[in-house]
Amino acid sequence: SPMKLVVTGGAGYVGSVCAARLVEAGHDVTVVDDLSTGHADAVPDGVHFIQGDAADVAQTLLSQGFDGVLHFAAKSLVGESMQDPGLYWRGNVLTSLRLLDAMRTHNTPRLVFSSTAATYGEPDVSPIPETTPTGPTNTYGATKLAIDHAITSYAHAHGIAATSLRYFNVAGAHDGFGERHATETHLIPIVLQVATGDREQVQIFGEDYPTADGTAVRDYIHVTDLADAHLLALEHAREGRHEIYNLGNGTGFSVREVIDACREVTGHDIPAAVAPRRAGDPAVLVASAEKARTDLGWKPVHTDLHGIVTDAWRFTRDRIAQDRRSAPRR
Ligand code: UDP
User: Nearest Cα to 73, choosing from 85, 86, 61, 90?
Assistant: First the structure.
């Protein structure tokens, strides 16, 4: 049955795709986003949009009576989190605590939270189940883990039905909604910038990892599949429980395999140069999403790397065409 939902960060990459899927499923969606990193034109049609800080807005908005909150709004650059940790402790942890307090005040029953594989740090198991000890190696991951702990105690004490979804490497695009960060650090959009001519070459961060081709292996999951897990989480959540699920395809691809897939999809040479490892990058991060499959009935369908890159490439080209059309003529 349709729910009345708040989506924080609904102008960002994953949040906008989720908001679009929620609308498609018939839910009544209010997006709250301060547009610090998101884009107003990424907010999907058919939602109510409020520009502002997630916690500030929630204090009053939730008094209207909502069935749940999907909390995407966050700072998510690992490098920045090491240079300016206060930005992450305040922006991620403090904001989330204030949001939880607002939910408690107004008896909002459900929460779905964007957690991350970065909470695990550099585990030596593969694939990674939720029972793996956490041990974040950067401030970003530490703040997400701190929020997960807070959610557990709020859920137990105040009867919230809470779910944390630990994303592995989100990629691809959904129906005109894709990845467009002002500061791009993610592999697939960076490689595609070489194909569009916005970048000369891609750097391969490390070729001496203990993997088949020496480059690091990650689990790339299509953003549409990821969004679907949020809808299932809303349905399956139970009062007073906090469940944590890893979301990935369970298959790893190396940096070189990703670059090769981008070459095939774009038809561009995509020059690549080997560079030193990036600090804190583990060799292999692959999810075991068995728990999500079993408990939520989640089945990722866009699991093929070629297809994921094809969708990201279509989005990238559409954006460029749109920017050309809207650019003033000289
Ligand atoms: N990577 C790379 N060159 C780049 C960006 C990323 O070789 O320009 C590598 C990075 O070291 C990691 C993988 O690509 O092994 C995925 O990185 P990304 O930043 O996309 O996601 P992360 O796994 O760090 O969350």
Answer: 90
> Which atom of ligand 1 is least distant from the CA of 190?
8
Q: How far is the CA of 67 from the centre of ligand 1 (A)?
A: 37
Catalytic annotation on 154? no
Q: How many angstroms does the Cα of residue 120 sit away from the middle of ligand 1? A: 17
- What is the model's pTM? 0.96
Q: Which of 140, 154, 209, 245 is catalytic?
A: 140
Predicted ipTM > 0.90: yes
Write out the DSSP string of 80-134: HHHH-HHHHIIIIIIHHHHHHHHHHHTT--EEEEEEEGGGT-S-S-SSB-TTSPP
C-alpha 111/C-alpha 289 separation (Å) is: 20
How far apart are alpha carbons 250 and 288 in whole angstroms?
A: 5
pLDDT, averaged across the chain: 96
